[in-house]
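Q: What structure does this chain adopt?
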Amino acid sequence: MATDDDREIPLPLKLWPCSNGEFVPPTIDPVRAEAMRRARRSVDDYAVRLGWSRRRFLTSSCGMAAGLLALDACRSEARRSAPTSTTWPGRSQPTITGSGGTFAVPDVAATESELATSVLTPPAGDPIIDVQNHLLDYELHPNAVEFTSFPQAGCGDPDRRACFSPQRWADLVFAQSATTMAVLSAIPVVGEANPLSIEAMERGRRVAADLCGDGRVLIQGHAVPDVGRFEAVVAAMEEVVAEHEISAWKVYTHAPNGWFLDDHDPERPQLGERFLTEVERLGVPVVAVHKGLAGGNAAASPADIGPAAARHPDIRFLVYHSGYEVGTVENEFRPDGGGVDRLIQSLQTAGVSAGSNVYAELGSTWRIVMGDVDQAAHLLGKLMVAVGEDNLLWGTDSIWYGSPQDQIAAFQSFEISAEFQERFGYPALTAERKAKILGHNAVRALRLDRVLTDRCEPSAPTDTAAEPGANRTFGPVSRRDVIATFRREHPWMTA
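A:
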């Protein structure tokens, strides 16, 4: 019989609305809500058939398969109940009659553990490199701005701030997922208020090494060209390069003040060209820049990516979130479209072709669209066309959403439909292309000399996967929560 604690364990496939604190999450659609209800109702039956406890099922690959099967079934039913043919409003294009994609999970995977694992987990021997991760170290920075209104603060630790610790992050990302390497990426906080300083990143690297062995974690240098004198910014960048081994520079062009990489707006500080010149001089020619997911902030538009990339072909630009914005439904590319279309249009206008020096990254973006197979297919398909199948990068924005394993499983089993391939010219999402996106492309983008492909085997046992909150969706889940989070925890953006 299931205990009360067992019934509190959420499904491993986390589709409920959630935010990383930078955007208001979209309301869950009826299909996803129904899929989660069906999957929850099926748990007891599946667990009994396997002779497992409810807890064991919910923390297994079979539990993940059950969620994806329910989602696929609900999407198919919704499609069949809709008119037999549909056209996108206001578009002169061929009629779409089928689904944009599907999760290729056999029905029996919910009760066959080995099959579920083989379908939902990338093959051994391929790296899974998550290029956008975050932690918050309040032991190292006890007076830093607190993020304790985020739901992950309810992880069960008496000290709510410990829910963001390097130890919690390393366990969620490495021990509780198939991730083999990760990049710790800066957040838009400066000075003493920053709980993710480069020193905190170095500590996270050591914690991960103690848990799983050395070499799994890369770190970035945080550059803030629009704070203080530019000469001081350059001096800080020089100090970072001299004292730390970094894989890239992380910048936020929309926070705190707003500027562009290509200096196209004369009303804003002209910092882009000066910053990129210093990037080239300092010998770490990789810029990871947050674009999109900024509530429509104009300075977070990816319009500057194409011109900057064309002007600096020796710099590799990693476009975090790919320019995606909540509220924009991703369809086929339009030159005047929003969201990801803005990035594509910027590249086309500047003459930056696929396979060049621009890489699109999927952190939070995939998490938001993966429950909508049409949007997911359009997003992945048009990005593979625009930047190239060798320039699309895996990222999850962990640990804001807990363990990234559900995102990995959904991506590994997702396929773009033959109809969408034919009508829109999208490539098939083959096993080879998935392997590139999940890891091999990051090896090229970051020019890695050492690549780990083995999964983490903790040196000390960890049983957090069996805790009632193991599958919890981390991050603000309502509009009110997100707005409150901004006001309390993003003073550098609201001041």
